[in-house]
């Protein structure tokens, strides 16, 4: 019975790692896009769970993106036990 549990646990772990990789890649693309904008460019942030966008600052969004990326890397390292995340 414990063997079946560990197989399901491993499958869930792999799925979680794949999902984290996809989200990490999205954040890396966002970071590159934000860096490529001109300093005076307008940036809008979507309000969670709605279709409302608010004007934001490029530097603020870039800092937020970097923070999220670092958190995701730490979480990935904790789950995989590997520092290659």
UniProtKB/TrEMBL annotation:
<dbReference type="Pfam" id="PF21975">
    <property type="entry name" value="ASNSD1-SEP"/>
</dbReference>
<protein>
    <submittedName>
        <fullName>ASNSD1 upstream open reading frame protein-like</fullName>
    </submittedName>
</protein>
<dbReference type="InterPro" id="IPR054148">
    <property type="entry name" value="ASNSD1-SEP"/>
</dbReference>
């Amino acid at each position: 019975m414990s063997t079946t549990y560990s197989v399901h646990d491993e499958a869930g772990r792999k799925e979680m790692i794949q999902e984290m990789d996809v989200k990490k890649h999205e954040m890396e693309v966002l970071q590159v896009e934000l860096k490529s904008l001109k300093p005076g460019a307008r940036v809008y942030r979507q309000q969670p769970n709605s279709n409302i966008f608010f004007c934001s600052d490029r530097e603020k969004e870039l800092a937020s993106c970097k923070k999220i990326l670092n958190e995701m890397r730490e979480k990935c390292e904790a789950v995989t036990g590997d520092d290659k995340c």
